[in-house]
Amino acid sequence: MRYPVGVLAMYLAGQRLEEISFFRKLSISGRKLGLEILVFTPDDVDKTRSRIHALKYNPAMGKWVRKWTRFPPIIYDRCRYHGLENFRKLTRFRKQYSSLRYLSRPLTNKWSMHQLLSENSSIKPHLPATVKYKDAKELGQFLKKHPVIFMKPKSGTGGRGIIRLQRLRGGVYLMQGRDPNRRILPMHKVTLAQIPVKLRDWKLEEKYILQQGIPLRLKDGRVHDFRMLVQKDGNGEWQITGCAGRIGPAQSVTSNLHGGGTAISMDALLKKRFNSDDVVKNIKKSAYELGLNVMKHLEDKFGRLCEAGIDLAVDPKGHVWLLEVNPKPSREVFYRIGELETYRIAVRRPLEFALWLNKQKISGVTR
């Protein structure tokens, strides 16, 4: 009998699941570990009978089939909100079914995350200066301190709604970015007073933070960063599964793969920039130590976590900067750069951690 593990997801338009390809890989990997992977959403719950109408992948048939079943005892939460209603659905579900064992917990928005990470003396030197957006006056003051800044929504992923501002001469700024639908906004010059006018429908005061810009442009003008995947292994210990570079498309201020970015190995990108094996080695050491410190600190604050994608930048001097923490990371970047074994490990590790958690429960050990 296979041990059931639930994957909590969310329907998009037309009853479509965003990560169905990933869920299929989870199911195949889970079978090899003796697990039954059951994918469901809050909409698939029969509250009157405490059961779910889950999707189960049948490899012999090569398709998904529905199955009524009891709630799995362990839940891998892959819900991505895409709107207030989905956020409310997930919040209600987790509150109503708090007795289930979740592999991880929801984190917090970018502003609160910055404040929490700033409390750790080993992490703080890696954080860009960050403030909440209040008004055009404070925006101007922040731009006086930093020649390049980013305006980011406190919540959101995939590069949506991110604006880059670069200080020019004569009170003029170069503005570019992506709108909330991830479309690239053309580069143009603006005055300080024009910025909130052009973004008047974006609810800047409610939703935005200002962040110091780190030099991310390569010689060809495209921006880049690094995505690190940190996961619990089959012994309940934090491990750096891998780290890869991402290069954004022309005219983009972000490097996200879903926004048209391309992937490259970490070593190749660092060597391209620094041309020194010793420098590359030291940068990687600093990045890996930072990734582990971040996850241990966040677990101390939030409780049990399973994995996170950590976005990093490396400035021209080789200093590593922490840009963002994503608690529901993809692992596609490793597939794109041909690190197939890293990709397989990245898919398998949450399942191995689920097995480890189950063993701890059986043996009466908690952690």
From TrEMBL:
Gene3D superfamilies reported for this sequence: ATP-grasp fold, B domain
InterPro entries: ATP-grasp, YheC/D
GO MF annotations, alphabetized: ATP binding; metal ion binding
Protein's name according to its UniProt entry: Endospore coat-associated protein
Source organism (scientific name): Paenibacillus naphthalenovorans
